[in-house]
Amino acid sequence: MNNYFKNLRLVALSFLVLNLFTACSDDDSLDKETSAFNIKIENNSSFGSILVNQENQSMYFFAGDVKGESNCNGGCAEVWPPVIAEVDDLDLASNLNLTYFGNVTRENGEKQLTYKGWPLYYFSPESDDVLEASGAVEGDGRGGLFYVAKPDYTLFLGRQVLTEGEDAEIYLVDDYGLTLYQSANDEENVSNCTGGCANAWPIFSGQQNPVIPSTLSEDDFSMITRTDALGPQLSFKGVPLYFFASDEGIRGNVTGNGTGPFTVVAPEL
């Protein structure tokens, strides 16, 4: 009989330990779920596809971050709070690609989330840590520098000092921040950069009906047919668009500006 009760106590103790282990495991799973940072694509009635968090709060890009570093600090960050999250903690919607996301370290050491190299921000209308309402996109176009974060931009805007001693300028870049150029030798919707020139200045193909920041006009973009086999080329206000090979695919590089007839493309906003 004593052995019977002894065995019964062992069974009860084993059951208790098992329940505790299961409870701890459930707590661990809950912690992982609550610590995950959710990002999804929301279909906005005005802007189409935009990036939002789990509270449906809109995210933004800043043209001044064209080099991939966050240049919105101090008072700027009070209006535009950075999206703070680790890439490893992301819980993405199935139509988002994790390889597009990264982190950049801010001045205070915090890890800010990036998309295609663009640091992500929220908008706080009163600069009081209170973000704009769920679904709102009131920050778009502010100062011609902040735009709602779209996952499918064809091109975007960069802003930096191009000539030492002068003010920063706004110019066209692709969705990864690579500088776009124009040539004074071209004619309206006609590229005269062929052969070796086209090797040094690869064409920007873009796409028909490009996805662009809201301060630009779709009517200013068109696809032109080239005389060579390089394919169609996107033009802006009749000016064919190019990359510069010597920029070496590095975002924010503007080594082609003022090289021969080539300059950056600075739109009037």
Automatic annotation (TrEMBL):
<protein>
    <recommendedName>
        <fullName>Lipoprotein</fullName>
    </recommendedName>
</protein>
<dbReference type="Pfam" id="PF03640">
    <property type="entry name" value="Lipoprotein_15"/>
</dbReference>
<feature type="signal peptide">
    <location>
        <begin position="1"/>
        <end position="25"/>
    </location>
</feature>
<dbReference type="InterPro" id="IPR005297">
    <property type="entry name" value="Lipoprotein_repeat"/>
</dbReference>
<keyword id="KW-0732">Signal</keyword>
